[in-house]
Write a structure and sequence with these properties.
single chain; alpha/beta; Zincin-like; four-stranded mixed beta sheet; 11 strands; 41% helix; globular
Amino acid sequence: MRMEIAGHQVPVKVHRERRRNIRAAVGKDSFILRIPSRLSPRQEEEGLEWFRNWAQKTLQRNAELVTQFNGRTYRDGEVMQVGKRSYELRLQYADRKTHAGRLHDGVIELELSKRQSGPELSKSIRTLLSRIVAQDFLPAITRRVHELNDRYFQKKIKGVRLKYNHSNWGSCSNSGNINLSTRLLFAPEEVIDYVIIHELAHLQEMNHSPRFWKMVARAMPDYKEKEKWLKENRDRCDF
């Protein structure tokens, strides 16, 4: 369901459960409201009023939740800045089943299906933009991964991948693949270097032991500053 909170229509997932108290939380794509299954009409209305007040205060503290829940609005002709690179967006809508896109001379041309709209369309555009920008950045990122590996670790790397990931900034597989989130491309170069170093260190130590952190600190003594930047600016790093 959707509710009007502080002038915004936001999605709310309501769960009626065998419980005593009302609980509310922020989910990935909506607010989550958990209410007891046995409430009188008056109790339920009081509970909803409490939830509206809670949700309003939550939005006031973090206005970006509206975009997170409802999706970003993309405009034809707008310029998207990713690191030091800028891309002009050209959006065309057609009667087609799927979306498509390509990059040509700094212009990202998207052919979008008219059959999708709202948050679903926003999510599809974000995914498409991520794939296109990843292809553009991959050669430079791959070179940087090998440069830092040759300088500090000298480990065998099977491959470097850029893909959209919201749950982490990077990962390292046992087979030697270095995976980096395309969201990281919005960060300063030295912060990108930190995540690369972090994952390269996992090629030697697949945990977060004191030995692992010593390897990271040896390559980047001020790595904690980069971690702090990521924590404070994670919401700004997205398509």
